[in-house]
C-alpha cells in the first residue's frame, strides 16, 4: 500500500466538524461536474461524503 487513509477519522477529522451540505453543494456546481456520465443528487453526494467516516 501507499499509505493513503481509507477513512477521514484516520486524519483526525471529526464528523461533527465536517460540513457535508456545503461540500456537496460545491461538488455539484464544480466546473467538471457536467462532464460526469452520472450526475448525483445532493442527497447522494452527502451520503457519499458520509461514507468517508
TrEMBL record:
Gene3D superfamilies: Dehydroquinate synthase-like - alpha domain
Domain Fe-containing alcohol dehydrogenase-like C-terminal residues, every copy: 2-52
Coiled coil: none
Residues in the signal sequence: none
Protein name in the entry: Alcohol dehydrogenase
Organism: human gut metagenome
Amino acid at each position: 500500500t501507499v499509505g493513503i487513509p481509507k477513512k477521514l477519522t484516520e486524519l483526525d477529522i471529526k464528523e461533527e466538524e465536517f460540513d457535508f451540505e456545503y461540500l456537496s453543494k460545491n461538488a455539484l456546481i464544480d466546473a467538471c461536474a457536467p462532464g460526469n456520465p452520472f450526475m448525483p443528487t445532493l442527497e447522494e453526494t452527502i451520503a457519499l461524503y458520509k461514507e468517508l467516516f
